[in-house]
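ok so I'm stuck.
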Amino acid sequence: MQSWQLYYPQLVPDVMTTTTMMIRNVAGFCCQIMILILILYCTICFRDETISRDAMSALMYGSWLLSTLVGLTLTAYQGVFVNHVVRMTR
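replied:
not stuck anymore, here's the structure
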């Protein structure tokens, strides 16, 4: 047991909490991958209807792609952190 676990026992996650956190993280990661595939598919295959129409449309798809990539990166970091916490508590 770590020294901080003795002083803050409410911060020690139980097995159900960590399993739920891992499942939610995987679900979020899969949804963001699907969104990324959808954005790239629409941008590549339907170029005339999406980014070639005007500058505002191209800016919207670019910002949508960037925000999806940032969210995907944060989800990956969260998965690493959850894995680290689960390994420390077991």
